[in-house]
Amino acid sequence: MQVKLKNKKKAQPKAKSKLIMGRRRFLKTTGLAFGAAVAASSLPGNLVRKAHAGEASPYPDAQKIKTICNYCSVGCGIIAEVQDGVWVRQEMDLAHPISRGGLCSKGASSREVSMSERRLKTPLKLVDGKWQKITWDTALDEIADNLKKIKKDSGPDSVFWMGTAKFNNEQAYMFRKMAALWGTNNVDHQARV
Ligand code: SF4
């Protein structure tokens, strides 16, 4: 017992130095990220542009709906501009009590997740290193067959069911039920950190 305590005491400075290194590395990394952001701001075309406070919306008649970002449990405020039933633009919510106008990159791109022209509309399968479009029926059949094989070979706990912030309350409930039906408690939300 005494030997263990002695070892523990000796180990402390090492752990502290690791922590300091970790912080240094973190600062170095964030410094690089900041440098990359500065470099990106000089990119040509419409890749990056300077944001200006109080920009006039190109949709003056759009309905402004207060909502929240659904990526994580912080729940930052977003003002969605909806015109003819389509979410056309978003603004930060300066009056939101939590975020006070701030949004991280995920929240700032909330609209693009569903409205982007680059959004996938069919399942893709990697075949010989290339993505091929397949039908939903094919995708669901292949996923079901593979899952059954995994369960048979390795048991239900070999799979972790990872939920998404894009689920609404009822979908999250069903997802949890699905994992239970599968036979495991290995289920959580993607924002669990
Ligand atoms: S904007 Fe970022 S921090 Fe705020 S709720 Fe969304 S993901 Fe979370």
- First-residue to last-residue Cα separation: 34 Å
Number of helices: 5
Question: Over the alpha carbons, how many angstroms does the gyration radius reach?
Answer: 24 Å
Taken as a percent bin, the fraction of beta residues is: 15-25%
- Total individual domains: 3
Bound molecules: iron/sulfur cluster
Query: What fraction, in percent, of the residue positions are helical?
Result: 40-55%
Low-confidence blocks of residues: 1-17, 34-45
Question: Averaged pLDDT, please?
Answer: 80
The shape, in one word, is elongated
SSE pattern, N- to C-terminal: HEEEHHEEHEHE
Strand order of the largest sheet: 1-2-3
Helix/strand/pairing class, anyone?
Answer: alpha+beta
Number of DSSP-assigned strands:
7
Question: Largest sheet, if any?
Answer: 3 strands, antiparallel
Structure overview:
With 193 residues, the chain is of the alpha+beta class. Helix content is 42%, strand content 17%. It is built from five helices and seven strands; from the N terminus they run αβββααββαβαβ. Strands 1-2-3 form a three-stranded antiparallel β-sheet. It has a two-stranded antiparallel sheet with strand order 4-5. The chain has a two-stranded parallel sheet with strand order 6-7. It starts with a helix and ends in a 5-residue tail after the last strand. Iron/sulfur cluster (SF4) is lined by residues 69, 71-72, 74-76, 99, 103-104, 106-107.
